[in-house]
Write a structure and sequence with these properties.
elongated, single chain, 6 strands, three-stranded mixed β-sheet
Amino acid sequence: MPSRDATTHWTGGLQKGKGEVTLDSSNLGAYEVSFPTRAGNPDGRTSPEELIAAAHSSCLAMNLSGVLESQNLEADYIDVSTEVTLGPAEGGGFEISGIAVTLRAKLDGVTAEQFAELANTAEKTCPVSKALSGTTITLDAALA
């Protein structure tokens, strides 16, 4: 499996500085980042937390489709929304204090309980979930 990479160029201090993160592997673009927009109003800029949320939601959607496929099931659709929260860390600085995942899928032929089990399996085996295992991840999964 290939690796993926991104680069950030930063100038200035934390509060008044700014940076630009470039998605190198895909060459999809460059995005401005700054601490004030990370900790407050995004004002059209992304943040590490938003990029983590994007990675987590897309990985979990793909992983759930694979878990379903292993059971000869296929959802009409899967919607995954991930909210990554930045908060103060004990001892100073900041940390990702929680990740809330909302997963909805239109899937015939399973009960709500069966779907919850499949969704939990997908979350626990998702590569991004595994990478984020040091953070509390909550999963709200239901059939649409």
